[in-house]
Amino acid sequence: MDLPRLTRRSAAFGLAAAAPLLALPARAQSGKSTWSAIKERGSIRVGATQAEPWYFKDPRSNEWDGFGIRVAKDLAAAMKVKLEVGETTWANAIAALQADQIDLMFVIDATPERALACDFIMTPLLWYAQAVLHKDSLKVTNWSDLDKPELTIAVNLGTTVDRFVTDNLPKAKIQRFPNNDEVVAAFQSGRADAASLFHPPLIALRKKIGMGTITLPKPVRASASSVAVRQEADKTWRDWLTHSIGYWYGTGRLEQHYEDFLKSRDIDPRSVPPIMRELM
Q1: Looking at the structure, do residues 116 and 184 belong to the same domain, yes or no?
Q2: Does 106 fall in a domain?
Q3: Beta strands in 8-143 (DSSP E)
Q4: 180 with 56, same domain?
Q5: Which of 19, 48, 50, 89 has the least C-beta neighbours within 10 A?
């Protein structure tokens, strides 16, 4: 079946995604709140990692782009401050928040474990489903089709994808990499039989390497993703982000940012699932 049909048929939506499985306990907050610090500093510091379509650093210009950067620019414009980009990894993002190196990180799923170490906005940022890019010769219908000792699955280290694959494919060999590009590179080079990511980055990377088949194994695992911020007593920053993201989600601006980035990669948005649950 085609990817859009599989996604539309998914009925059970949970909370999970691409970020650290466990983080250090949140550090005690002192001094200025994040909101006050942003106002005084005159800038928002967003975390970013090489992971299209969420984040992309152009090696020629050294400039960042992608869905997360475009939304962050909207936030900075609304607050009339500048935008700073702090490079990190999914596995280190929460630690970077705790260390006061960044002010927010997009596309972090609000799991119970992570909620012990950081805070989250109170509305979904986007919706996506976990997919697998595999060899054309490999028949994949269910997740159990991948649970074989002769198969190697590449995943992003310290993410909910990593956790799901580890928990549900105990017989398979799991290779873990720090970013999406390296996950797909392992598949492209033949070091892995399949690569598992959520469908938006996997679609973009499949387009780049031009090989393999994308499948949403059953039962389809669809999730809402969120925005992570530091834990602190003053909730002004979290609450403002909640209202802003909720407004832009409802008006379709977030979906438009996603589609615009897909078009910049010569991917027809109509050929892939959207990130708004209501449009799936």
Answers
A1: no
A2: yes
A3: 13-15, 43-48, 56-57, 64-65, 82-87, 105-108, 119-120, 126-134
A4: no
A5: 50
